[in-house]
Design a protein that fits this description.
The chain is built from two helices and five strands; from the N terminus they run H-H-E-E-E-E-E. By secondary structure, it is of the alpha+beta class. A hairpin with a 2-residue loop joins strand 1 and strand 2. The chain starts with 17 loop residues before the first helix and ends with a strand.
């Protein structure tokens, strides 16, 4: 009877252990470990790139919301400037509600000839402030400065 039998059941040389015969043939061990190590390094690199990309997306979204808030503050400051020019007076306030958020402004006389317009723009959780200084109101406003400030 001719059967295929595993090496363990084949006749062994004297003094040879069957288990030793199993573990001495390790030709695939080094390539297997190399593939596992390279795969682990590749997985770590891919995970790092994914997390960096996610952080960049969050930063860019926060930057965009901040720019929307600044644009809203500028819109209200412009509206305040328009009202000062039309009324030839520097006192009042107003609120604008736009699709991207809300803003408000206040105009006040800080000296007999100088006027200040303070505007605040809010988009989601971001708030930005703009200040305008006019050195003359009548007959035409003269713009001295237009700047973003930290808060009013």
């Amino acid at each position: 009877m001719n059967m295929i039998t595993p090496e363990l059941f084949m006749p062994q040389p004297p003094g040879a252990s069957p288990l030793r015969m199993l573990y001495t043939n390790q030709e695939g061990f080094v390539p297997l470990i190399s593939v596992l190590v390279i795969g682990a390094i590749g997985l770590e690199i891919a995970t790092s790139l994914l997390l960096l990309g996610l952080g960049a997306v969050r930063s860019s979204a926060a930057l965009e919301v901040g720019l929307q808030a600044r644009s809203l503050a500028d819109a209200c400051a412009t509206e305040g400037l328009r009202q000062v020019r039309e009324a030839v007076a520097c006192s009042g306030s107003g609120v604008l509600t736009l699709a991207s958020g809300d803003c408000n402004f206040t105009t006040s006389l800080i000296s007999p000839t100088d006027c200040q317009i303070e505007a605040q723009g809010t988009a989601q959780s971001s708030v930005r402030y703009v200040e305008i200084h006019l050195t003359q109101v009548d007959p035409d406003p003269v713009l001295a400065s237009w700047r973003e400030v930290t808060n009013n």
